[in-house]
């Protein structure tokens, strides 16, 4: 059996198993779509786009459709640690609900500090109940870094005064899968930027299980919901890159799919914000775009109902889905120039061959010549 056929069979078996479980929502997914004015046609288009996002052939859309309907069978526990809640906002702050936010509404969300009605002792009880009742079956999503200095005392949550470190370790123990939502929980994020006084770390550094890292400050709603959908459909983790990010979302550089790429190859650069080049949509490399060093699908999937993404809005990519980007990618409005990135010297000599991957990407000689015609500021 080829890999796609085998994966399809796995998905069918997984969904059959979920169908046997009790629904946890009183209203069906179809009814919710109807209430929000989402047509069957919109739904079919969405299922096809989710399959395409996973680079799976069209027949998989039937599994996506079924997984959406059965998403209320999968318990989800969502923790907030040291962060700004931008990741949750990325998902729910939409003026009209779309299918991505509707999945989040339908999935069995057992605990989410900023969305649940409960507070105080009741909230703590809900968490304890969910971890016990769905032992081994719940998905654990974590937003925010884990402060570890002074035994985690820089972050306590709830009326029992447990540290974030204790809570995440406890919740990770019996999770079916763990997803770090955002760069903070994936790699520490801004909290872990030098000098990192709270000893902030990514979740994968404090638990002894595989953690899926959804880099991005914040990640797009597509990458969050796509990862939930993948787990609902197949009950397992997708293929991951060297930083444990799903390859279907983080498999290409921002630079590879950027709409300004033609400008880069032609050597047409914005020299300073507000100049004619900026007005004409020239490449933002010289004003600090880190798209050539950053793996994410922002140009293709965008944010806020596919409305926009940083480069389309006129600012360079800041490399927000990469580990240590606050330290490694700064200054954000200057080219990386002569700095070390993941241990590689990002100088003119290596940019063509190593960082940009000249042969694989086919960067125009003109662009390289043009970037380095003048010495870069450092
Ligand atoms: Fe971090 Fe998420 Fe950046 Fe904020 O919570 S990834 S600071 S967008 O919100 O964790
Ligand atoms: Fe786009 Fe930035 Fe690459 Fe220029 S350097 S093509 S703006 S990603
Ligand atoms: Fe982040 Fe760059 Fe995308 S800054 S949102 S990875 S374009």
From TrEMBL:
Subcellular location, principal? other
Q: Which InterPro entries match?
A: Cytochrome-c3_hydrogenase_C (IPR027394), NADH_UbQ_OxRdtase-like_20kDa (IPR006137), NiFe-Hase_small_C_sf (IPR037148), NiFe_Hase_small_N_sf (IPR037024), NiFe_hydrogenase_ssu (IPR001821), TAT_signal (IPR006311)
Q: What is this protein called?
A: hydrogenase (acceptor)
Subcellular location per the Swiss-Prot or TrEMBL entry: Cell envelope
Residues of the NADH:ubiquinone oxidoreductase-like 20kDa subunit domain: 84-230
**Keyword field:** 3Fe-4S, 4Fe-4S, Iron, Iron-sulfur, Metal-binding, Oxidoreductase, Signal
Task: Answer yes or no on keyword Metal-binding.
Answer: yes
What is this organism's lineage? Bacteria, Pseudomonadati, Pseudomonadota, Gammaproteobacteria, Alteromonadales
Asked if the record carries the keyword Metal-binding, the reply is yes
Spell out the family assignment given in the record's similarity comment.
Answer: Belongs to the [NiFe]/[NiFeSe] hydrogenase small subunit family.
